[in-house]
């Protein structure tokens, strides 16, 4: 499904701001589309003065862009992006051309991407276990003509962590160390407990206390199996491996017995005939 949490007028009268988390799909509306999409072009800029990348021209996808496979044009000329990555943030402009002449004004959409990552005192994710320290990083990747920090502070946008029950985590909670190097980054540090397995911590973005998007981190470290469960698969594996070997040995033994019986039967019959003839000769004498 395509998600869109939009806010209009944060930077300009006709500008639209869309908040999305990495990994999701998003739909960016084209508010100046004509009767069909053959005149539609979508242009991307990560920063206000960065290189311009043409994504759609004449209603057709450009094949020389990094995001080519994740893009599609909707029937209403909207730009659909699948599996958002943090590098997708920036300005997307919908523009109309007729006979190579621009028609009307640009329709600009600012895409803000929320991304959560983690690091731990363990060098490997598979080694993460209770007692280790984990730091969660939540960052809003944003470019709206000014720095992310300046833009967020001026527009009443907040980032914060909540627990699985949706309760906001604060610095007063001794279990968590929360810090915000600037308004676009907030970190959460904690020491994992056994009961944290599959627990979720969620980073939320709000605009004037209204939720715009959120990104979740789930403790997915492998559970430690107890001695009973650990022994079961080993026993099962051995049984599975051993049973066919035993059956094979039994089968070979049966074959040997049958072969012996087949070859021994004529000999027994022959001896029986000789004995019968000797008995007949004695009776005649």
From TrEMBL:
Gene3D superfamilies: Immunoglobulins (2.60.40.10)
Keywords assigned: Membrane, Transmembrane, Transmembrane helix
Ranges that cross the membrane: 250-275
Gene Ontology annotations for the cellular component aspect, listed alphabetically: external side of plasma membrane; membrane raft
Biological processes, Gene Ontology terms: interleukin-15-mediated signaling pathway; positive regulation of ERK1 and ERK2 cascade; T cell activation
GO MF entries: MHC class II protein binding; protein tyrosine kinase binding
Ranges of biased composition (kind: Polar residues): 226-235
Record Pfam families: V-set (PF07686)
Chain residue ranges for the region called Disordered: 214-243
Keyword RNA-binding: no
Alphabetical list of InterPro entries matching this protein: Ig-like_dom (IPR007110), Ig-like_dom_sf (IPR036179), Ig-like_fold (IPR013783), Ig_sub (IPR003599), Ig_V-set (IPR013106)
SMART domains: IG (SM00409)
PANTHER family associated with the record: DIVERSE IMMUNOGLOBULIN DOMAIN-CONTAINING PROTEIN 1.1 ISOFORM X1-RELATED, T-CELL SURFACE GLYCOPROTEIN CD4
Descriptive protein name: Uncharacterized LOC109073792
Organism: Cyprinus carpio (Common carp)
